[in-house]
Write a structure and sequence with these properties.
The protein is mostly beta strands. Strands 1, 2, 12, 13, 14, 15, 16, 17 and 19 form a 9-stranded mixed sheet that branches. A 4-stranded antiparallel sheet has the order 5-11-10-9. The protein has a 3-stranded antiparallel sheet with strand order 4-3-18, with no helix packed on it. The longest helix has 11 residues. It is globular and about 50 Å long.
């Protein structure tokens, strides 16, 4: 069975539900407009499903002027947000990085407070902002948006199927928040890949993805399921961390699409 791209995912707002794509544009950022928006607390620090599992029940999609956020529990609850100008810049933080971002205003802040029960704000990373990928894994000049650390995350349908079998119930691959999902390899074969090619774009697999509690969240209810992390510790723990999926850096720009062959270069 050939190794192919089975799905592609874009996350317009960090830690909200993603958007499935048939074709993905790849730029110097990685996936086009992926995680350029982020929710922050009243200290300007990034908020995610780690602290607020209910964020998994909000979905974001791109619009011509910005982003649309809606509740997955109540379709009448939505808000459209225009991309802010850079005259509203402030300093926000994601992990150990401080970044300049543009605040999206009070209306969406109030909407988020009603949905999530906490004072939060939405911000946007402008085109002229530069956040360097950790130079332990990438050359100087390789940038990333508000993603945790790398432009892409790759996961395998076959690896998730193996975890599902061990758990005794199906795990939705969306729990792991991949950008690129592949199918047609042995379970966990991606652990040994170092470079792949999809269409005309090469990718370097630079670091296994250390997992937190986010994959334990049931996407239908927004409730954590501790047995999922127990499984991950049993099956995927190494040197005190749990790893699943591979962080990627693109080696060029172009388009990739669902159904395309994946070539293992190294």
């Amino acid at each position: 069975m050939p190794l192919t791209v089975s799905s592609l995912w874009q996350y317009p707002v960090k830690s909200l539900a993603g958007v499935p794509l048939k074709r993905m544009q790849i730029t110097s950022w990685g996936p086009h407009l992926d995680r350029r928006w982020m929710v922050v607390d009243d200290q300007g620090r990034f908020a995610t499903q780690r602290q607020l599992p209910a964020m998994s029940r909000l979905a974001a999609s791109q619009t011509e002027r910005g982003v649309r956020i809606q509740s997955l529990d109540d379709s009448s609850q939505f808000i459209e947000v225009r991309q802010p100008s850079d005259d509203s810049d402030s300093l926000v933080s994601v992990w150990s990085d401080d970044c300049v971002a543009s605040d999206a205003g009070d209306e969406v802040a109030e909407w988020l407070r009603r949905q999530l029960g906490k004072d939060l704000r939405l911000c946007f990373m402008q085109e002229n902002t530069f956040r360097q990928v950790d130079t332990q894994y990438a050359a100087a000049g390789v940038r990333v948006s508000f993603a945790d650390g790398f432009p892409f995350l790759l996961c395998s349908d076959d690896s998730v199927a193996a975890l599902s079998k061990a758990l005794g119930r199906d795990l939705d691959i969306r729990r792991f928040r991949p950008n690129i999902v592949v199918s047609g390899a042995e379970a966990f074969a991606e652990d040994s890949w170092r470079r792949i090619r999809i269409a005309d774009v090469d990718f370097e697999l630079v670091k296994p993805c250390a997992r937190c509690a986010i994959p334990t969240i049931n996407l239908d209810s927004g409730i954590r399921e501790p047995d999922v992390f127990k499984l991950l510790r049993t099956e995927r723990q190494r040197d005190g961390d749990v790893f699943f999926g591979q962080n990627l850096i693109q080696c060029g720009e172009g388009d990739i699409a669902v159904g395309q062959r994946v070539e293992i270069i190294a």
